[in-house]
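Q: Given only this backbone (591 positions), what sequence would you predict?
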């Protein structure tokens, strides 16, 4: 409570002109061990008879409604004289304040912040991560007004954000949209700063972990140097990487000129663990252009109270996934072999996803707000990230083919960056117009087949265009049942049944608990070993529990080659294929 009093007194000491001209936010971390803070928002004078105040119902970078307003308690609203004003909650994230005369309005509330994995808000005894979407209310009436944020935090803490900081623990922004896209990390951190090409960078580490600070900073330095090569310029003067080493939370979110990346604390050291981390860092950095500088018109301006629909999320997210490793390859952070291993994994994942025959990437984009994942989704849907990557690759190769490797997908994104910057965004027609301008040809038929319709890609033809092929397997084929299991109470419990595969045809379903193969008990821990022992082309009986009743089903396995897909160079590669490879990967033919 003492900190809250200091916070309020500090606000009263601000010049009256500042208070009248801007929205002023104060946050005091009062009980960090209980994830609690006190927030105060002072809005400029309004002459209306009501003032709407709102908490966003979603945050940028995550296309899903979230219960952010549920973290608000003890709401109080007063006028310029400190007198209480009547208010009423009218929707999940909206409150209506009744006014009897022109006045400034002050809103105070307690905030509960324990959503680290959502990357919306988290406060504990070591730090606070504050994404304004889940922390600071706004009024549509003053959304475009300049604002100031001041924090009251423990003495040893430091506060960092992509926003300008006129003093320690203070930030200013041109409007609420800048605030909501500029999270604040305050606490005890390791921090490294560097400058490159006239721009300032800060890399901040929160949490103990097995990360190598110097190695990460060096790789990020090499990564950011490649930005201008793709887009021809940078949309920022300063950029902040916020890295969280956590006890379980994972993920990342892009912001206007910063990103937050979360990894479990001991998952940085091994190369196979480090690669996903640095790829995520690259992904969020690419978003600084693709989404933050230019994005689909359906996402601009953000409507924080409801879903923002577009059929182009595959381009916003899938293209970003597509470019992330290209930048790392060009920067020398990953090798050609690591780059191609990632391509191979994506091919394998797509070929194991029956939903690619069912749903287009455009439909998946529009449906992302209600996408739930799981068994049904895998069989009947596609993912905007993974299939959006492959749609981007197919479009890249189509551009390369139609221009004899003179242009590529990078040129299309440079066109969007230069011609469709925010606030307007771009439409599907804008993308098609850019393709016509780059190639001199219409992409309407291609778009209808590859984007608006489910598109089963010919990966062998795509690989051949850039001089690559699948490496033949020297392992014998094994039996494949077309299902996945997890161990649950020692039993092999079915979690996925591939549509039209052997298990699907036999009638297996999720939550079946398989206890025996061909009459012999099979512990979940021995599942893969027992499958490897099955004879080929011979029917198999599975004994299982369904709704606690024992039953037996028969099926005939398919054949498959064990091991992971590996890509290699073709034996004789033409100059045209080498040129296509360079246009695609951004480096010379490496073989």
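A: Predicted residues:
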């Amino acid at each position: 409570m003492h900190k809250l009093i200091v916070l309020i007194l500090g606000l009263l000491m601000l010049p009256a002109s500042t208070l009248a001209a801007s929205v002023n936010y104060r946050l005091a971390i009062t009980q960090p061990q209980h994830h609690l803070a006190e927030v105060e928002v002072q809005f400029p004078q309004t002459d209306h008879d009501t003032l709407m105040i709102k908490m966003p119902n979603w945050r940028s970078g995550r296309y899903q409604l979230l219960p952010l307003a549920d973290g608000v308690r003890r709401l109080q609203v007063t006028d310029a004289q400190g007198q209480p004003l009547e208010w009423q909650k009218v929707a999940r994230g909206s409150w209506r304040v009744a006014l009897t005369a022109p006045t400034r309005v002050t809103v105070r509330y307690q905030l509960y912040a324990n959503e680290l994995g959502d990357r919306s808000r988290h406060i504990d005894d070591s730090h606070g991560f504050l994404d304004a979407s889940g922390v600071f209310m706004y009024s549509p009436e003053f959304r475009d007004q300049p604002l100031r944020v001041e924090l009251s935090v423990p003495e040893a803490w430091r506060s960092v954000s992509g926003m300008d900081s006129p003093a320690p623990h203070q930030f200013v922004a041109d409007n609420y949209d800048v605030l909501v896209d500029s999270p604040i990390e305050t606490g005890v951190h390791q921090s490294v700063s560097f400058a490159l090409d006239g721009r300032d960078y800060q890399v901040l580490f929160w949490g103990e972990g097995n990360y190598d600070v110097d190695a990460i900073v060096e790789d990020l330095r090499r990564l950011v140097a490649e930005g201008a090569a793709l887009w021809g310029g940078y949309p920022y003067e300063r950029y902040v990487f916020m890295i969280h080493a956590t006890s379980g939370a994972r993920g990342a979110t892009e912001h206007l000129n910063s990103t937050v990346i979360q990894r479990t604390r001991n998952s940085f050291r091994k190369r196979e663990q480090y690669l996903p981390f640095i790829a995520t860092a690259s992904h969020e950095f690419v978003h600084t252009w693709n989404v933050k500088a230019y994005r689909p018109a359906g996402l601009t301006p953000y409507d924080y109270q409801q879903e923002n629909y577009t059929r182009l999320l595959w381009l916003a997210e899938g293209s970003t996934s597509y470019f992330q490793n290209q930048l790392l390859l060009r920067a020398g952070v990953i090798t050609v072999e690591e780059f191609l291993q990632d391509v191979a994994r994506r091919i394998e994942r797509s070929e194991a996803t029956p939903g690619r025959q069912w749903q287009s990437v455009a439909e998946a984009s529009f449906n992302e707000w209600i996408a739930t994942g799981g068994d049904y989704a895998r069989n009947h849907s596609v993912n905007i990230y993974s299939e959006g990557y492959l749609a981007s690759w197919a479009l890249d190769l189509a551009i390369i083919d139609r221009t004899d490797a003179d242009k590529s997908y990078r040129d299309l994104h440079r066109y969007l960056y230069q011609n469709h910057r925010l606030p307007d965004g771009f439409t599907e027609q804008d993308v098609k117009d850019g393709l016509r301008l780059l190639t001199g040809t219409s992409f309407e038929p291609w778009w209808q087949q590859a984007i608006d319709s489910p598109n089963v890609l010919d990966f062998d033809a795509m690989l051949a265009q850039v001089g690559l092929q699948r490496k033949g397997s020297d392992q014998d084929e094994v039996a494949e049942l077309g299902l996945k299991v997890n161990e649950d109470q020692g039993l092999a419990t079915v979690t996925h049944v591939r549509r039209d595969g052997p298990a699907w045809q036999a009638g297996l379903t999720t939550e079946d608990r398989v206890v025996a193969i061909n009459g012999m008990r099979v512990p979940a821990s021995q599942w893969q070993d027992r499958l490897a022992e099955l004879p080929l082309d011979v029917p198999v009986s599975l004994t299982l529990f369904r709704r606690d009743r024992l039953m037996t089903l028969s099926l005939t396995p398919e054949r498959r080659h064990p091991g992971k897909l590996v890509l290699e160079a073709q034996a004789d590669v033409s100059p045209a294929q080498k040129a296509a490879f360079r246009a695609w990967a951004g480096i010379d033919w490496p073989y």
